[in-house]
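Hey, quick one: can you model this chain's 3D structure?
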Amino acid sequence: MTDAQPSRGRLRAEFSVLFLAVPVAHVAFFDTLGALAPLFAVFAVSAILITVTPGFRWREIVACGGLWRHIPLVAAATAACAAVTFGLTMILIPERLLSFPRYAPERFALVVALYPFLSVLGQEIAYRLLFFRRYRALFPTDAAAILASAFIFALAHAFFLNWVAIVLSFAGGLVFAWSYARTSSFPLVWILHSLAGQVLFASGLGVFFYHGAIPG
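Sure thing. Here's the predicted structure for all 216 residues.
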């Protein structure tokens, strides 16, 4: 951690490269870059940047005090996610409803167990923790910051090349960003994001979170 305050110009440059240029390049040069390398690069750089952000301590990501107060929010958000994802599955790809847990239960269990740590952790460090702790001052209001967080989160999923992944990522990003802006609780948004992803994979809609899975 450092006490040096980065200039607004530097913050704008970091934000533009990390959250705008990299995902656009990911879409444009997917055949060269692949699915994972740009994402993990963003996660790694985000971990470095949050480490040197003034006032940040890594113990914040495990600060669970008062988490029980948010149980109603977690329950409501998870129920809404289930309604949307199962509803879309039945509309768009009804033949895939519950296909993952039904036909590949061992693999599904592995995804459920590892997804919060191998995917959600890096995403929430980048798109919520780093965004709000380092770049919040670039936006005039909380509402603008929440929208920006959701936008860059959706843009990071643009390489999947289908509207379902982008729209759901934006909607989820709004919920996660609003929750973090309201509570400053990293464990809360990590739990919300983990449960949303697990519900999505269970429903069958996870097929749209593969590169090029365009609905017919």
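One thing worth noting: The mean pLDDT is 95.
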